[in-house]
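[Automated response] Your request has been received and processed.

Submitted sequence:
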Amino acid sequence: MDAAHFRHVVGHLASGVTVITTDAGDLRYGMTASSVTSLSADPPMMLACLNNAVPTAEAVTASGRYAVNVLGDGQGELARQFASPSPDKFRGVAVHPGTLGLPLLSDALAHIECEVVERVTGGTHTIFLGHVRSATAGNGQPLTYFRGGFGRFAFAKDDEVYGRARELVLSRAYPADTALPLEDLAARLEVDDAAAFYALTRLSSDGLVRRDADRGYVIAPLDVRTSDETFDARLAVELGVLALALDHVTDDEVAELNRRFDTMAALLVGERFVDFHGYLDANYAMHEYLVSLAGNPLLTNTFGRLGIKNVMTRSFGVTPETSQKFVEAQGRLVHGVATRNPDAARRGAVEYCELAKERVREILTSNGGRI
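Generated structure:
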């Protein structure tokens, strides 16, 4: 089989685009890779196939660990930068240390940190089997590689349908704890069943609907107890992180935490959200990074399972109005971390938790006790 012909044919297999990063000694390494995939869920494992001629492959072998940075659909130039030979591939790229201390691309769609447990040589490449130690993801669409070029999935229509379905749920067009039949949603949105089903699966991931064995998809109610338990759990995790991490947090980590705070704060002007979904993503990204400062994958994974974004979406998303007090409290939390002042950081975290619970109570009261 001619190599050029083989590459042409295999190029018809669309794949996601990632940047594999690692460090060895005092140097950072990175390369664009599309031969990356999940291998196992229990235990969680990833597979990365790297060209042996690229320095990153040798660095992964030396360090015994690597990070998979999943790129979003607007990061084609970033993919090209890490695919081209350069003495400094990280130039102009925002980077922060991950749970394993690896350099993570801050604006990537998702991050997966792995420890190498096995290596397999195949032709010109080495396959690294990695045990996943930390995994985080944001919202957005992935960058894809197809026939030698970068592009995006054609999800625009499905996303638009999902957005309209989500507005129906948040506006309480369907009462809490009632069934949401696929055919009814499709008819209401004037779309086919496939598009409505996609919307329902996204709503399920958001926690706005849940699967019931007898009734199918059901509008998931939100009440005070659920809200209080979720925000109290987040507070408990963050107070634990502050106790573990504040003594050894670095200046670079403080700078990254401040950057994420500034991104979030810019999306709240006066008493209104400029972009609620953008604010929600930025808020989650900031608190997730705070939790990662403990360097404890179990804490990071616990935080991810709390469903914070679900509760905020279902409550704060009902109204565009909010309060600058939320940003101010989080600002005091971040300032406490920056100044290595545990009491100030703890007070900021507690204040933010109480404000969030009180705001949800107000929203629930104005909407009949649950939404």
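Summary generated for your ticket: The mean pLDDT is 88. The chain has three domains: 3-151, 156-219, 224-366.
If you did not submit this request, please reply to this message.
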